């Protein structure tokens, strides 16, 4: 949908509360914080998800669309997922352009959830090497992400597009790690992969001329396996399995604060 097909130019934040559309995966849906919205239980959308927490901060914000869905890959932007319309279709169907659109995407494309569960059951990488994941992130994801961010910008040409990176969820040093299942080598591999993914996301956002918001330090000192963790522990059986390695309520608050600070430092 273009500007000529029914959307009005967003008013300034001073004139009315800003509006927010939320796209992406479990790192936007708030999967680590049950209970979830009863009308859309499969997407595991939490009332404590960071976008909803962001909406309670100043200036006042209304969540016009909450399309983020647990387990979503980039395919969910353009294809039906868990019985819902493609996320970009949902965005285009809004009667008024949102002031801000946020998105977290790419982690499931890279297969991070399977890697983390593998860490817990035996070891992170069956051959001890993370080459397959590194190659996927550096060779396949850049073009996919750039194309999808460009499609997102085209779907909401009058909105401010914020591509939100992933927080580091593993300890910054082995000294802080109290999980016996996570070796120092694996910890370094996982933190390096997340950094690599965020670099690819940042570059793809720049290629599509949309904004990137870093959250990698949002959970610093409170990662999984630390004494005061703000990340749900790993579990093998539902519902703990679904919550695994997702920020808890305090983690969601920390991410919301990081995004809010970005917005406050760069008002338009």
From TrEMBL:
Molecular function via GO: triacylglycerol lipase activity
Pfam families named in the record: Lipase_GDSL_2 (PF13472)
Keyword set includes Disulfide bond: yes
Entry keyword annotation includes Disulfide bond: yes
Keyword terms of this UniProt record: Disulfide bond
An example Gene Ontology biological process: triglyceride catabolic process
Disulfide bond residue pairs: 43-69, 119-124, 179-225
Domain SGNH hydrolase-type esterase: 22-254
Active site: 26, 246
Spans traversing the lipid bilayer: none
InterPro entries referenced in this protein's UniProt entry, alphabetically: SEST-like, SGNH_hydro, SGNH_hydro_sf
Name of the protein in question: Secreted lipase
Organism: Frankia alni (strain DSM 45986 / CECT 9034 / ACN14a)
């Amino acid at each position: 949908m273009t500007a000529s097909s029914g959307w009005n130019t967003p008013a300034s934040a001073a004139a009315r509360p800003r509006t927010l559309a939320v796209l992406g995966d479990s790192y936007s849906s708030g999967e680590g914080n049950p209970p979830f919205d009863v009308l859309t239980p499969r997407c595991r959308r939490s009332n404590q998800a960071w976008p909803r927490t962001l909406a309670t901060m100043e200036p006042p914000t209304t969540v016009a669309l909450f399309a983020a869905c647990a387990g979503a890959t980039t395919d969910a932007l353009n294809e039906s997922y868990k019985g819902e319309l493609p996320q970009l279709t949902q965005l285009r169907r809004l009667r008024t352009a949102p002031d801000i659109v946020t998105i977290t995407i790419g982690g499931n494309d890279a297969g991070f959830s399977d890697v983390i569960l593998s860490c817990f059951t035996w070891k992170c990488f069956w051959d001890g090497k993370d080459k397959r994941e590194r190659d996927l992130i550096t060779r396949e994801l850049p073009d996919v992400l750039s194309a999808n961010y460009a499609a997102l910008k085209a779907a909401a040409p009058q909105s401010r597009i914020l591509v939100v990176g992933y927080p580091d969820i593993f300890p910054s040093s082995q000294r802080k790690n109290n999980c016996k299942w996570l070796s120092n080598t694996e910890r370094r591999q996982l933190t390096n992969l997340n950094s690599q993914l965020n670099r690819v996301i940042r570059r793809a956002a720049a290629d599509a001329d949309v904004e990137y918001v870093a959250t990698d330090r949002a959970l610093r000192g409170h990662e999984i396996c630390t004494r005061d963790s703000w990340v749900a522990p790993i579990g093998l059986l539902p519902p703990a399995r679904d919550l695994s390695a997702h920020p808890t309520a305090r983690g969601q608050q920390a991410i919301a604060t990081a995004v809010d600070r970005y917005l406050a430092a760069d008002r338009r």
